[in-house]
Amino acid sequence: MLPLNENGNQGSSPQVQAPASSLSVFDVVRVLWNGKWVMILFALIGATVGFYKANWEIPMYTSDALIQINTKGGQPTAAIGATTGLLEVQSPANAEMMLMKSRMVLEKVVDEQHLRFHAKPIGDKDRILHREGRMDLELLELPGQGFKARALGKDSFAVVSHGKEIVRGAVGETYREDVNGDILVIRVGLLKAKAGQEFSLSVSSELAAISSLANGLSVSEAGKSSGSGMIKIIFSHRYADRAAAILNSVVNTYQRQNVELRGAEAEKTLEFLDEQLPGVKAKLDSIEAVLAKYRREMGTVDISGETSSSLGRSVDLQKQLADLDQQKAEALRVYTPEHPNIQAIELKRKALLGELGKVKSVMKKLPEKQQELLRLQGEVELNNKLYTTMLNNAQQLRVVRAGELGNVRIVDHARIAERTSYPNKRSIEFMYLGICLGIGAAILILFRIFSRKGIRNSSEVENATGISVYAKVPESRNKLLRMRKHATKNFLVVDDPDDRASEAFRSLLTAVDFSLEKNQVLMVSGLIPGVGKSFVAENIAALAAQMGRRVLLIDGDMRRGRVKSRSKDGLANVLMHKCSAADAITPSSVENLFVMGGGHTQLYPSELLRGDTFKELLNELRPQYDMVIVDTPPISLVTDATLIYPLVDFSLIVLHYGKHSVPEVVETLASLDRIKDCPKAFVLNHCERGRHGYGYGYYGYYSYGYYKKKK
């Protein structure tokens, strides 16, 4: 037995509890399970929306092509030998990818593939069922808007506007028709549609078509490392053959323009060489003439082997310096002077100049005749090499120009895709199913969080009031309790003794027995309607009667009584002295349990309860019964309960799980204590078993009655 507090009530030790607003994983699972029908509803909504969305999306086919970029210049070096630095202008893959999506390339693709002309299928039903027709246009000029094409047969169609037929035609033919002083021009290249299917006709601007094509192209560098020179192009379209055709047109146009660009570059370089060759040839002839004249005048001059080697080394160094200067000039067309490539050329040039200076210092020690002869021979040999190199370069450029060579090679052309790449119907369906389930779960959890403002744990009310909670009555599994049309004269503890609520009532009666002596009066009340106080009173009475006690259950709610009685008279009739207590009391369906209904009165029940009449009635009934239970109206609704409260020996206040706040309970108790300090206890009704015992969940409420289990 729990110890009594200073007010004579049984209290409990304070307990530490989690905040009422928090939800554990187990709570969330339980909330979702309790709201399984809501989740099933959202699942059906998600499945329906997902199925509709997956079938509404237009199936797309994806094709891809692969090209190789030779960043070192012309690609077929075997045909022209080792290409010179004149055309060795690096072309990074990033720049090539930008060129591929440029208007220079895509403009020709738009014209070649007739991408400005559109015939969009009409009809939501055909779209969902994927029965849309297809019409490819090769030429279209519209004098306005609102024009449609209607399929008439396998290869015939009609153009209509505002319900009026403008022209009839066949596939492959060009038609021109005057429409209000303007010209309608149309040529259909392909028609695959059932008779009666319609298409919306439109013409987009060239810039819009180019932009749409550029947005649809996916260009990226293939390979794990950058600089591989392999570029992959991907394009998607609702028709597989069109996707491959458009993509092949893009890569072919790009390759053709690359060849033209390379040919134009070779042509310009060749023109430059042709302009420079006569001057170099004239300089070479002049130096050779000077050398010949010098030899005639000076005669034979002996040159040692070491001197001859120095001469050859000097010529080679000067030739290398000339090549470096040419490489630097070409590199400056691409890079800035601070670029590492330019700096590397400068370092190499300085090294060659230093070595050339050493060779010249050795040659200065020779006699003047030998120095002059070596100088003239060196200039002749150097100019001869330059002239020969320029001739070779010019010949190679002529080969490049004649062979139309570029630095782009198509590795893989686009192929017609066999399967759609988009949409993934299953993914879309699961996505919308998950979204709707998430929305449903969020609604349930948020509803539970915002509804968890009332008392949900016995320690909350015990710590705040110092009054014990005698029992936590869980929600009954008896479904007929919620079906008012199945009223019964039996009680839950009688009709379904194995129910979890019945077991809670046994524990409650045990606690009440420790607080009540024989022939005492027990009051059962609640703060607000619908907490199940009548249900608690009836089942305690029935359970006590089953244990052999003589019990009287009085319906103190003379306004809205719930206790069933076989007599038309009740408490109101007794208090008005229209009948005796014995006439108003009738036996119930449970042995040893007697009931007195609320009766009927035209007066206010509170007026009948004032005075000593009800007190005298209780004093009269006490010796006749082992226990008298009075079911009162809600405390906060009318004053009847506060009038009955001072006349009883013990009070049970029924609280609805999750509906009452602690301040509300404290305020109600304060109003009762101002009348009389009577022993009392709480009953927490409508609880659901959680991992810490009963105390979480909400299924509804019993209201004032009880209902029979179907046999």
Task: Give the arrangement of secondary structure elements.
Blueprint: H1 25-34, H2 36-56, E1 61-69, H3 77-80, H4 93-100, H5 103-113, E2 117-121, H6 124-128, E3 134-141, E4 147-151, E5 156-161, E6 164-170, E7 174-179, E8 182-192, E9 198-203, H7 206-216, E10 218-221, E11 230-237, H8 240-298, H9 305-331, H10 340-363, H11 368-403, E12 408-412, H12 425-451, H13 458-465, E13 469-474, H14 492-495, H15 500-515, E14 520-526, H16 533-546, E15 551-555, H17 571-575, H18 581-584, E16 585-587, E17 593-596, H19 605-609, H20 613-621, E18 627-631, H21 640-644, E19 650-656, H22 662-673, E20 680-687, E21 689-690, E22 693-694
Parallel strand pairs: 13-20, 14-18, 14-19, 15-17, 15-18, 19-20
Antiparallel strand pairs: 1-11, 1-12, 2-9, 3-8, 4-5, 4-9, 5-6, 7-8, 10-11, 16-17, 21-22
Explain this structure:
Strand 5 and strand 6 form a beta hairpin. Helix 13 packs across helix 22. The chain is an alpha/beta fold and 711 residues long. Helix content is 46%, strand content 18%. It is built from 22 helices and 22 strands. The strands form five sheets. An eight-stranded mixed sheet has the order 13-20-19-14-18-15-17-16, with helices on both faces. A five-stranded antiparallel sheet has the order 2-9-4-5-6, with no helix packed on it. It has a four-stranded antiparallel sheet with strand order 10-11-1-12. The model is unreliable at 1-21, 73-91, 483-488 and 691-711 (pLDDT under 50). It is elongated, with a radius of gyration of 52 Å.
